[in-house]
Amino acid sequence: MKNEKLSQMISEIFTDGAAVTNKVKYTILQWCTAAVHFMLIFIFASVGVYSMTIFNIASTVCYLLCGILVKKERYILFYYITFLEICLHSYTATILVGWELGFPLYIIGIMPVIFYMHFSLNESASLRESLLIGLCCLISFIVCRIISYRIEPVYTISPKASMHIYIFNTLCAFGLLMFFSLFFLREIQFSRSVLEEQNARLDKIAGIDSLTGLYNRRSMDKFLSSALSSGKTFSVIMCDIDDFKKINDTYGHNSGDEVLKRISETMISILRENDFVCRWGGEEILILASGTPLNGAALVAERIRAHIEDMEVFCEEHTIKCTITAGAAESTEAATIEEIISLADERLYSGKKSGKNKVVYE
Hints:
Layout: H1 2-14, H2 22-46, H3 50-65, H4 67-71, H5 75-97, H6 105-120, H7 127-150, H8 159-206, H9 217-230, E1 235-241, H10 244-251, H11 253-270, E2 276-281, E3 284-289, H12 294-310, E4 312-315, E5 318-321, E6 324-330, H13 337-353, E7 359-360
Parallel strand pairs: 6-7
Antiparallel strand pairs: 1-3, 1-6, 2-3, 4-5
């Protein structure tokens, strides 16, 4: 079970696009700090500094007990304990074995954790508190340096052992910096990914007509521009609901809205996936038939017209029959999008004048 949890934690860290939970971060931090102090027990014992050996036994037990705080998600309290322990450990080590062994480096290593916690935790820690603790880290580091100038180390350790301990402390301090830098980078990547998804969702919402679920004019302008720039033949079909004002006046605007919805659903069910349909304005609906010549577009428009003519809309105890008139134009008949749509619009109104409920494409 423990191996499965560890595998899950590692997976969260190295899986792209996944958010690393606070529990994973601080569980790893807790075990890493406990492991460092556990190793320091043997390091100090090997050089005969038994007072620091006892200190690190106590520190190891302390961090193991901090697992209770991590499980209860008391991360701020866990950090305060870590901060105080590292400062106290650095003071004591500087007095007993000197500055040269690099124990004050842990104070530098803990610095970014302060601001990272402020960034990642939704708890009561304010930026002012983080800055104050950061200042305490600076003061603690300077105090350790002053102590090293004024007090000779209690224990004398051989230069070779001193170098090995210094390298160990440097690796651990930089490891702490890299640990939280990695998580900070993952937070930024995850936040960017979420932001991109939200922007894409908002962009999609902004491009959809809220009543019919069709694309709106803003979206259709993009599709039309893309179709024109592709150089491939396409057609547009401009549709208008016949006597729509009469439907609104007779049955009410709710019924008019229901008619618009049903007609939109019918069009979507008939058109291909690579065709686009939008509410152009009011009761006008524009269809972009991708890669379709004029004759093909006329057949599509006629099929839609026939389905709508046979359709019945039930709303507020009324049965409403409706029809549409459509005008179609091909991209080769004009040079610009505006001219193509204008031509389809002219044919639409030609159909309106000649009796409605028809498709005009010549």
